[in-house]
Amino acid sequence: MGTITIDTIKEIREKVREKQTQKRFEHTLGVAYTATCMAFLNDVDPLKAELAGLLHDCAKCYTDKELISMCRRDGVYVSEDELASPAVIHARYGRYMAEKEFGITDIDILNAIDSHTTGRPCMSTLEKIIFTADYIEPLRDKADDLGIARKLAFTDLDECVYEILHSTIGYLGGKGAPIVSGTIRAHEFYGDIHDKRVKGVKGTVPLTPLTPPDTNYRKKGDRMNTELTTAEIVKEIYKALEDKKASDISIIDISELSVVADYFIIASGENTRQTAAIADNVEEALGKLGIDYKQIEGRDSANWILMDYRDIIVHIFDKENRLFYDIERIWKDGRKIVDVSEL
Ligand code: DGI
Ligand code: FE
Ligand code: FE
User: Fold this and answer.
1) 54 C-alpha to center of ligand 3: Å?
2) What is the bridge-based pairing of β-strands 247-253 and 336-337?
3) 315 near 327, Cβ under 8 Å?
4) Is 79:183 a contact under the CB 8 Å cutoff?
5) Which residues lie below 8 Å from residue 205, measured CB to CB, with a gap of 6+?
6) DSSP secondary structure string, 271-331?
7) What is the pLDDT of residues 293-323, one digit of tens each?
């Protein structure tokens, strides 16, 4: 899709207008404009936020029954608990529609549509913006905590997300409605950030979003100080991981899906001592080859260490966090698991 232009925005706005009722379309515009303002404050591309806002409810024109059968038809994954809470399925199918029907290729926008109803742990800034704008846009008038949420949206985004999740869970619980696991996990994640702040504990949750907000900064060709190809470096990393007995090593080729990197390598350690040792070994092995990392995050707490080697991002999790963050799910669309021997 390339850079988002005003023309793209206008074209998509008209397409969405045709699909939606007048009332739903006014809500859509409210979300788009609110998201744009929030983007200004958070250094997110405002056109990207506007586009995500315009598309967040693009699948809302279908009934629950239609959405369930369309998800089946098109192979869009919906979990068992989501089938029992069909109000959330328009987000899952919306992601698919945005990609297939509206030609959106930006993973961050697609993720923002996918997560706009339930949220999820570790959202990118854009995802948090869409999740929040959906709740606070000017035409919303039902929630008791709108005043609080509207202020927090512009003062403390993580706290705002927590507030919204907390209040949604309370509201659904009060109605006796089931709560999907995505909502619960998101609530735990942002609750954790909230608690650590309240207790004054320095955060142990690595705050790197799964998709960095601005993913277009990386110029292909701006590589590392080595003659090795990216595939050869992946092999070296794999060796360094195996050396320290990392388990469940996945190599995902995301080059077709994202400009963030070409490969994600995900591995687990039994505990944080092992994850730290694994990260040290990767750093040392690549260092010997003249390859320096661009950034390493999460080393202190070591429950999720993210090593950014530009074209290759290495995630090292302890057992519990590997399951909790379920990073592979984010890249489930068209992800290609690579066998190291084929590289
Ligand atoms: O599509 P919108 O109306 O703009 O808003 P939305 O995408 O946030 O959808 C809101 C609906 O989704 C609302 O009826 C509550 C419901 N919802 C959100 N999280 C959950 C949920 N419903 C169930 N049962 N469980 C959830 O975890
Ligand atoms: Fe929605
Ligand atoms: Fe909405």
Assistant:
1) 9
2) antiparallel
3) yes
4) no
5) 189, 192, 193, 196, 301
6) SHHHHHHHHHHHHHHHHHTT---SEEE-TTT-SEEEEEETTEEEEEEEHHHHHHH-HHHHT
7) 888 888 888 888 889 888 898 999 988 878 7
SS3 248: strand
Amino acid found at 192? D
Tokens of 254: 């995301």
Question: pLDDT tens across 149-174, in order?
Answer: 999 999 999 999 999 999 999 999 88
Give the separation between CA 256 and CA 15, rounded to whole angstroms.
26
CA of 237 to the centre of ligand 3 (A): 42
Residue type, 102: F
What's the pLDDT tens digit per position in 12-22?
A: 999 999 999 99
All residues at 6 or more sequence positions from 187 whose CB lies less than 8 Å from its CB, including other chains: 119, 162, 165, 166, 169
8 A C-beta contact, residue 235 and residue 263: no
Higher-scoring residue by pLDDT: 36, 79? 36
Which residues have C-beta within 8 Å of that of residue 66, sequence separation ≥ 6?
none
- The two tokens of residue 51 are 């586009």
User: What is the end-to-end Cα distance of the chain in Å, rounded?
Assistant: 29
The single residue listed with the structure tokens 């250094």 is: 43
pTM for the complete prediction? 0.66
* Nearest atom of ligand 1 to the alpha carbon of 60: 1
Instruction: Work out the average pLDDT over 36-46.
Output: 97
The CA angle 180-122-46, to the nearest 5 degrees, is: 105
Q: Nearest to residue 18, comparing CAs of 126, 108, 101?
A: 101
- Closest atom of ligand 1 to 27 CA is 4
CA dihedral 284, 287, 291, 295 (to 10 degrees): 60
Ligand nearest to the CA of 117: 1
How far does residue 88's CA lie from ligand 1's centre (Å)? Answer: 5
* Residues within a 6 A CB radius of ligand 1: 27, 57, 60, 85, 87-88, 91, 116-118, 134, 168, 172, 177-180, 183
